[in-house]
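During the second year of the project, the team shifted from modelling isolated chains to modelling whole assemblies. The rationale, set out in the original proposal, was that interfaces cannot be judged from single-chain predictions alone. As a representative example for this report, we include one of the complexes processed in the last quarter. Its constituent sequences, exactly as entered into the pipeline, are reproduced here:
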Amino acid sequence: MQADPKGVLTGIHFMDGDHAACEGALAAGCRFVAGYPITPSTEIVERFAARIPTVGGVFIQMEDELAASIAIQGGAWGGKKVMSVSSGPGISLMMEHLGYAFITETPSVWVNVQRGGPSTGLPTQPAQADMMQAKWGSHGDFEVIALAPNSPQECFDLMITAFNLTETWRVPVMFMMDEVVGHMTERVEIPPPEKIEVVDRKWTTKKPGEYKPFETTPEDPVPFMTKAGDGHRIHVTGLTHDERGYPAMTVPAQDKLVKRLVYKIRDNADKIVDVREDGVEGADVIVVSYGITSRVAMAAVEQARAKGIKVGHLRMVICWPFPAKRIKELAKKVKAFVVPEINLGQMVLEVERHVAGVAKVLHVGHAGGTVHEPDVILEKIMEAVR
Amino acid sequence: MSEEMGLEMEQDLERECALENPVLPYLRQDRIPHIWCPGCGIGTTVNCFARALTESGMNMDDIAIVSGIGCTGRVAGYLNLDSFHTTHGRAIPFATGLKLANPHMKVVVYSGDGDLSAIGGNHLLHAARRNMDLMVVCVNNFTYGMTGGQVAPTTPTGPTQTTMPYGNFESSFNLPALASACGAVYVARWTVYHVRQLAKAMREGLQKKGFVFIEALSPCPTLYSRRNRLGDGVDQVKYYKERSIVKNGADTKDVGLTYQGDIVVGKFVDRERPTWMDSMNEHFTKVLGNKFTPYGVENGQD
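Output from the structure prediction step:
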């Protein structure tokens, strides 16, 4: 369906990634945000607080991230499209509720404008060191979807994708920005509402009494949803539950539920994965990157090509689910992968796991605080072809 | 009498009861039996709540119930309402989101003393401060029941708990004073001995706009009473009967509880204050004029 025109600020703008992310959420139909201030993400909620009264919806600044990350789920079950926004320390506090969103299949977008960690770390400077937290940070088995925009324009565009994915799959979606993408100001083009495709919630059409809130079929592992007040008298719990939503703490119930939650994403990874490739066919080396580092990597790739090296670039627009199939295919054709990222080795582990020794995998780590120098990535590319 | 006949008679009896017990329509009967121990008072509070729902005349489709974790946290699962069993301590912020997203709902938070005042204490303070339109029922049994009888912020100084094996040396919260000081518009305390008064307070709470806090004292015979040789559930209710003093309008600073001491019960606070949403609508209308359409009101946005 088309975007609700009330939330779409059509036009050409000069804005930073945080503001663009907020506009993306509004265009996608987000009408409830609960937040708590934290650098470098705060501008997103500040803009939402300013915009929402005239768009139609609610913003509330909660008393902490624990509250914000569960208030949005109340909002989702109240019928709204919802988002919460934070950075490292706040995201750590939100992890329990990320798990609640997984087990209750609550559509919700979780923005992490990454900064240097661990702990309070580097509040005003970038990192990409929460990628494994996004994947594994909450306890128990689950599969996340995580996007990594590399520009303010993508903060807008991919935010709409993030909302569409969370509504389609009923899994919390992490929006993995970083301080540089959040604060860099560039041209952002917001299309007219009729050019913006948004996915509506998967509402049930069943009557009260017929509807089971967590009922699925083998063909469709994503249950239909309702909202409080629609007469279905649903029960929603963070406990392992059956199709009715009732607690069912047995081995078979756990097996059935958790496998469905995990495999609804694993089995459909091909439909979700999004990589952008540049010159990978016939390449000797492929640089695998994501987020802000993809823009730095591109400079290094161009310098290497100028030296006559056959180097390709694969950018993960969606990091989770990981593009395992594509990496495995490419591993058979190249000498090496070079993986730059602003952490000391996170997504590279996933590249290594799927390359499985078929090609070399060289990491270009960075402890955070700024982006890489293209030269260090170039050096690794040179090393890879040696 | 054959076994089959016996079963048939039992079913007849159940059907007869079903016709007469006014609480049954409010329960998810496919979830009974419940998990609560014999002598526990939580079920009594649920009975009072069901009566309050009947007397309020409200449409059950317009009421949602949100619980946290713990014995009282299971209440949501037994009530035939839109019901949410959330995470430990976070029933109030979940309920806040639900209320703001769907303002036509009456949202009730039903949880225990540990859930609401320890791990969830901060949310209690801020929801009362905001005058969020929620009714909070806090079943206070002075202990963590589900995990085996650990000390709670409500445990009076003195009694033994598993994590206070030599007796509790901490001071306890006076919950009505806390809720009142933070801005709740309705504050009451009753015990499970006072079933009529508790049901009435819940009915008033359902009809009150703003942050309502009702404390219901309830025995935990399995852990709190047994460990401290206070007898069974009935003995605790006898204590409530003998030592409760009704003082409607009492200053909440004077209603703190001591170990097996006097219990001041009553409706302590009943006042008016704009809710969070009323304040938002009034303020935005003032500063934004006709660019703003009031939210969550008839013919407004939702």
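The CA atoms of residues 72 and 111 of chain B lie 5 Å apart. The mean pLDDT of chain B is 94.
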